[in-house]
Structures are given as C-alpha cells and as structure tokens.
C-alpha cells in the first residue's frame, strides 16, 4: 500500500496531478475539502458537527477531521493506497494522520510537494479564476495572501516530514505530462 500526501500552494496543480496519479497507481484520492462538503451536504453526524463550528467562524477541530478521514479510508478497504490532499496542515494533524494510518496497519510513505514560483502561481490562479467562478481566484491580493498563508503553514510540515526522510519536493512547472513524470519517479522510488 502506498500512501502519499500531495502538497503544494494554491494553483500548483494538485487536483490535476491527483487525478493522473490515482489512475496510474490505483490510489484513492481523499481531498479534505471534498470530504467536508460531502459530509455537510449529506448531513452526517460529523458533517453537522463540522458545520456548527464553521457557522461560528471557527476552525473544525482536528479530531472531527481525522474521524472523517478515517471513515473515508474505511470506505475503501481494497485500496492500493491513498493520496491525501489538503491535510495535514499542522504538525499535530500530521501526527494524528500518522496514528490513524498505524491503526489501519499502514503508514504515510511520503509528502510530495509541488514547488512552483509565486508569479507562476498568481498567473495560473488568475487564469483559473476566469473560468472557475471562484472569487478567491479572481483577486490578486487574495491570491498572494493564500500563497503566503500556505508557506507559513507548510514550512513546519516540510521540516516535520524531512526529519522522517519522507519529504520530496518536485518541480511543478512544465507540461502536465512532465510533472506527472517527476511525481511518478518519486512514487516509484518509495
């Protein structure tokens, strides 16, 4: 079983690459944002709990998020592995995810981060904003702030996974095929 955390700043191409990697390696893609939306839409117990925090403008406690992820892993008992996208974001979450995977008799094999220059990210997101309808992709000031927040949060996780010899930075600039090839080399080496 291969379990990776796919990381990168907004606009790095995580969603695009996750789609290729899940097909190529027969992995299950777990996007935390999608899991939240699905649980809230279906009014699950965890979804309603998460919604109650979000309605107050509070962060959803890690325990609720981990429980949602655990349910997603349990829904896929025959998976060859998982791609986690959007989680973890803190060291405490990274530790909790590690324990969750241990409980499932597996582990996180790698954090693979797509590395892209800020100016390229801004250009990609503004272009995406023209077609996505996402307000956070239309305003350069908001985009730059999202990128800054990502770096402030992720530096800690980069250090965390480097200490475990599980961090891999991958150049996220080029054609989709070139980037998929670079990611594949990392995954094949695990």
Automatic annotation (TrEMBL):
SUPFAM superfamilies: P-loop containing nucleoside triphosphate hydrolases. The lineage of its organism: Bacteria, Pseudomonadati, Bacteroidota, Flavobacteriia, Flavobacteriales. HAMAP family: Adenylate_kinase_Adk (MF_00235). Keywords: ATP-binding, Cytoplasm, Kinase, Nucleotide biosynthesis, Nucleotide-binding, Transferase. Its EC number is 2.7.4.3. Catalyzes the reversible transfer of the terminal phosphate group between ATP and AMP. Plays an important role in cellular energy homeostasis and in adenine nucleotide metabolism. Pathway: Purine metabolism; AMP biosynthesis via salvage pathway; AMP from ADP: step 1/1. It is found in: Cytoplasm. GO terms for molecular function: AMP kinase activity; ATP binding. Consists of three domains, a large central CORE domain and two small peripheral domains, NMPbind and LID, which undergo movements during catalysis. The LID domain closes over the site of phosphoryl transfer upon ATP binding. Assembling and dissambling the active center during each catalytic cycle provides an effective means to prevent ATP hydrolysis. It is an enzyme of class 2 (transferase). It comes from Aequorivita ciconiae. The keyword Transferase applies. Belongs to the adenylate kinase family. GO terms for biological process: AMP salvage. InterPro entries: Adenyl_kin_sub, Adenylat/UMP-CMP_kin, Adenylat_kinase_CS, P-loop_NTPase. This is Adenylate kinase. Pfam families: ADK. GO terms for cellular component: cytoplasm. AMP binds at residues 32, 37, 58-60, 86-89, 93, 134, 146.
């Amino acid at each position: 079983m291969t379990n990776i955390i796919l990381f990168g700043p907004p606009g790095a191409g995580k969603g695009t690459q996750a789609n290729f990697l899940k097909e190529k390696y027969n992995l299950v893609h777990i996007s935390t944002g999608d899991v939240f939306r699905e649980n809230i839409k279906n009014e699950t117990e965890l979804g309603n709990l998460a919604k109650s925090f979000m309605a107050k403008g509070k962060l959803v406690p890690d325990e609720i998020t981990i429980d949602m992820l655990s349910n997603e892993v349990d829904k896929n008992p025959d998976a060859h592995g998982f791609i986690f996208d959007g989680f973890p974001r803190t060291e405490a979450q990274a530790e909790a995810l590690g324990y969750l995977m241990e409980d499932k008799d597996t582990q996180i094999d790698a954090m693979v981060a797509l590395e892209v220059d800020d100016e390229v990210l801004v250009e990609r997101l503004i272009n995406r904003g023209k077609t996505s309808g996402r307000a956070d992709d239309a305003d350069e000031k908001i985009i730059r702030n999202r990128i800054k927040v990502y770096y402030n949060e992720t530096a800690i996780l980069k250090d965390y996974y480097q200490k475990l010899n599980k961090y891999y930075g991958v150049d996220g600039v080029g054609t989709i095929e070139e980037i998929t090839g670079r990611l594949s080399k990392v995954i094949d080496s695990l």
